[in-house]
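In this supplementary section we document a worked example of the pipeline. Step one takes a protein sequence of length 231 as its only input; no multiple sequence alignment statistics are reported here. Step two produces a three-dimensional model, which step three serialises into structure tokens for compact storage. The input and output of this example are shown verbatim.
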Amino acid sequence: MSWPAVEHVAKMIDHSLLRPDLTTDDVRAGCALAARYDVASVCVRPADVPLAVRALDGTDVAVGTVVAFPHGSSASHVKAGETAAAVGDGAREIDMVLNIGRLRAGDDRYVADDIRAVAEQTAARGALLKVILETAYLTDAEKVRGCRIAEEAGADYVKTSSGFAPGGATLDDLRLMRRSVSARVGVKAAGGVRTLDVLLEMAAAGVTRFGATATAGILDDLARRRGDVTG
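The serialised model returned by step three reads:
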């Protein structure tokens, strides 16, 4: 098998630092790991954005954060305000949770306006927007609608999960999501991306970003398989 370059796979990973019990020292250590492996970004809690920006200054690792996380039920103006504050603090990527209940209720206009309120903030400030569907709570039809609404409202990515719901990314969901958006919109898998084999299988299904906490294990495994390291 021809293995992809470690550097290429690293730039598909958003290293997740979202556990509620993480200390500031834990966040600094996570940022150091992200810098060492030169991943795409770290995804930190909103209060940790300034800390992460300082820790990653001079690197090519972007700082991202979450909005209305993990339930998506904040009012739209609160989501917009969170986004403006986060980007003002130095975040360059925003992972927002859409309003899950309103999507399930069929209130597509509300869901679109909710996403658009955040998209206006990211677009004005040059940040990326990833919209979390929380697929564990949705039917396939709702997943398709959520993806299409997100694209129409200005999302750059659609994302499976927060990592805090009962289930995470599945291949079936990722393939469905990839089919439901245009080539302009990326697909991000999160929740359960713990091994290299899972990541590569999902990448073959069209996924271009991965939220992961097992970053070091995944990339070290790839280096071993390529023969880049011994042991």
